[in-house]
Write a structure and sequence with these properties.
The chain has 13 helices and no strands. The protein is mainly alpha-helical and 271 residues long. It has one domain.
Length: 271
């Protein structure tokens, strides 16, 4: 009798529509990837501050090359999920054009400047031997890298939409070493970047969860593919092969799902 009840409940779930399944799964969706990533940035900053003097420049440069290769791997795993290649390409092109016309990359930089001001409220004095100008420039760079990079934005939204934390966890592995390297130069201030990073990612996580009922599996896969293309561009930047305007490409993530929906429901039936 008990087993029969279990089978009936299982049948009900299997035949339940997609929206209802999402609502059930969202109840247990926790920001595990966000917590992991932010902790790695915090811990990496501490390790780099303590042991930074023992790391050679050659070691740091080679490690950065490995980071770029890892970014390629993450991007490929996302791109292969695409369901509508024309829709994905269209979203990337139109989104990038919008970003370039709006100077979205400059807006991201201004966001980084604001975060830098917040960090200095916690850290009044810099603990580094480099000049003030170089210190500010480097700090802004890593704030943008950790908080406003395409990988984090994309990963936080995917985590909120589908409960898939693999992108943020993979990013966390890279971030702990990146934070460690930058902390060698800037000191413990690097660890404090985890605070605005956590706040921003949680907001994106919540937004991702709110739009789930209005999406389909195809739309989510195409969204992941668009994010994968942006990650590919980030990989080229990390390897210093090509300076893609990754900040200007972020609007592609915003229009990815609407474009996928329009393509699937209005364009495909005409073909």
């Amino acid at each position: 009798m008990l087993s029969q009840c279990f089978i009936n409940e299982l049948d009900i779930y299997l035949y339940m529509d997609y929206d209802m399944k999402v609502l059930i799964e969202r109840r247990i969706n926790m920001p595990i990837g966000i917590i992991t990533d932010c902790l790695c940035v915090f811990i990496g900053g501490i390790i780099g501050t303590v042991f930074g003097k023992h790391m050679s420049l050659d070691f740091k440069e080679k490690l950065n090359m490995i980071f770029g290769a890892c970014a390629f791997a993450i991007s490929i795993s996302s791109i292969i999920l695409m369901k509508n290649m024309p829709a994905v390409i269209l979203a990337v092109v139109i989104g990038s054009i919008i970003g370039i016309l709006m100077h979205f990359g400059d807006l991201v930089t201004k966001l980084g400047m604001g975060m830098k001001s917040i960090i200095f409220k916690f850290m009044k004095e810099k603990e580094s031997d480099i000049s003030d100008e170089e210190f500010d420039s480097t700090l802004l760079t890593i704030i943008l890298l950790f908080c406003a990079g395409g990988t984090g934005i994309y990963g936080a939204m995917v985590s909120g939409m589908s409960g898939d934390h693999t992108i943020l966890i993979a990013k966390a592995i890279l971030d702990i070493f990146t934070a460690m390297i930058f902390a060698c130069l800037l000191g413990p201030v690097v660890s404090f970047i985890a605070i605005p990073q956590f706040i921003l990612y949680i907001i994106l996580f919540i937004c991702g969860g709110l739009i789930v009922p209005y999406t389909t599996p195809v739309m989510i896969d195409d969204f992941k593919a668009v994010g994968g293309i942006i990650l590919l561009a980030i990989g080229f930047r990390m390897l210093r092969l090509k300076d893609f305007p990754t900040g200007d490409m972020i609007p592609a993530l915003i229009i990815a799902m609407p474009v996928s929906y329009i393509w699937t429901n209005f364009i495909v039936p005409l073909l």
